[in-house]
Amino acid sequence: MRKVDDSVYDWTRVASLLLLSRELDELEEKVLAPQRRIFYQFSARGHDLAQILLGLKLTDAHDAACGYYRSRPLLLALGVDPEDALGAAMARAGGYSDGRDLGVVFNHPNPGGPTALPMCGGVGAQFTPAVGWAQAIEYRRNVLGDQAFDKSIAVALGGDASVATGGFWSALTIATTQPLPLLFFIEDNGYGLSVPSSYQTPGGNIASNLGSFQGLRVLSGDGTDPSLCSSLIHDAVEYVREHRRPCLLRVDVPRLQGHSLQDTQAYKSAAVMEQEWQRDPLRRLFDGLVPHVLSPAHWADLQERSKARVQGASEAAQARPVSDPGRAATHVYFEGTVQHRGGLWAEGWMPPKTSEQPSVTGERINMVTATRRTLDHELSINDRMLVFGEDVGAKGGVHAITLGLQEKYGQARVFDTSLSEEGIVGRAVGMALAGLLPVPEIQFRKYAEPATEQINDCGSMRWRTNNRFAAPMVLRMPAGFGRCGDPWHSQTNEVPFIHSPGWKVATPSNAEDAVGLLRTALRGNDPVVFFEYRALLDASSARRPYPGDDYALLFGKARKVRSGTQLTIVTWGSMVERCEDAIESRSVELIDLRTLMPWDREAVLLSLQKTRRCLIVHEDTQTAGFGAEIAAVVAAEAFHDLAAPVSRLAMLDMPCPYEPTLMAHALPSVASIRARIDRLVGF
Predict the structure, then answer these.
(1) The one catalytic residue among 108, 399, 489, 618
(2) Is 603 found in the same domain as 522?
(3) Per residue in 328-363, pLDDT tens?
(4) Residue 377: active-site member
(5) Which of 188, 231, 452, 532 fits a 20 to 30 Å CA distance from 297?
(6) Are 44 and 18 in contact (CB under 8 A)?
(7) Across the strands, what pairs with 570?
(8) In a shared domain, residues 541 and 566
(9) Is residue 173 part of a domain?
(10) Residue 510 domain-assigned?
């Protein structure tokens, strides 16, 4: 074994951290897990040395690493307290999540030092947020001129199985085409749980397969050899810092325990496991340091100190209470206490003063112009706001909403992306965590499906980190039918976003509301899905005068379109126009919800006290559509006010047809709405 380089690492510190990591694993496996004081355990044995060497090289205040469930040694190197680590494993109060998330799913705001971005439970979900942080570094460095980011980098850690995921390839594409200062740190232990690396990438070596990948430096070597591994990590980190370009470092490591504590490793032979233990990096570190760098007595002292520290941490962690169940539902949304990291508010930004009163001037404009004008104004007053997605740049978006914005604000602020919705939303998460305001666009609602994991992880972030982190953004997406339909471009389906805790959902039906809701979203402190209904983009019924640059609307406050006494219609988005046409000469109260998360149940229930009849109309399919939620609330809270059953009118339970006549048959029409009104009034 080559002699270790004393000029690059403090090897006493390395040894202390490695011994500390081993003691934590030992305690969990032999004491806490058998005593059922922890519920999940993922040993880092074999991976630990390489992670510690990496963590000690992350020294810039704006460095960030996004790890995965086996990344605790990295966190220890970044300064995480073992008491917090064990407290999280035991699901006790405080710590990373206040008992809300798996103990191995870490986060570490670390003010003034490198950040450990909130980890995710899904394999490969860590890559695109890391690339978003890297892009934010370059934006703050090159566009905002902040020299504090000149040497900052992002790191994404993953096992060998993660290289098969869409998140990995999306991040790789973004990092190499931009290019961006991102280190891909791949810990190859030969198995994705029980599945060999050869199932993840041909030949089982991602470094070999990416050797000719343009724009990417590729390094690979033994992650258990202290001298070689430290040299590789030093070279990789310094390359990314100096050249501002991505690097992939694959370290070959053994996984000395099962995938988790419950994994018996029956898929490995005894000979294979023996070979793995022969490569134990702790043993190799001992051989490399003792007696040349550390005396045997010094090593033994480090061991005793690690045991004592872990024992003390265990006692302190066990003394922590279980979090108050009454607080379990806090921090799903911003509640007034600003998160430690993420978004503009966490860095002291305060939104400009707004008004709920429109200043009506000028001619009526359509939804496209209203949305574009709002984006334009907010871009002009907020240099941390970025708009991006497929075709939003020179083309101006497939619906022309971003037309001219790139020309006005430049490609760094309004830009096109690669064709990966996971990459669009995931990078937005990383940008938001780094203090920017990302405004990503999904070209059509149906195309959001590949981004589902990133959307869900973003929404749950504030809650699962107990308000340590949040990723406020505005996710714009056109939805619903146009001149024709089809199963791919005409889907509405707002429900998954409403069902994803942490997201607010805006559904404007006219230009004035679009301005007010979009401005509130852009100046808020929560992630927002902003629907742009295709049928309304140029509809004359949706046109309104521009309500002013200060106009903003509260979420959860419905608009009473028309008063009436015989029946209440509850609707939103594209169906508002049709309902207005249907209620002519009828005494019907029409309520436009405007937002679905939160939705204004008080306005609906108050209206029903007067009309005693309820019809819910929406563009989405009926079964399990959001109308079912409204109907359930009405049935539970207004049952004694009702003079007729709650009724729903929605699209047939089928994909939206392409041919216009077939599409018209599937959707609620003016005639069908009118007929349902008459039936309910006559009940």
Answers:
(1) 489
(2) no
(3) 999 999 999 999 999 999 999 999 999 999 987 778
(4) no
(5) 231
(6) no
(7) 591, 616
(8) no
(9) yes
(10) yes
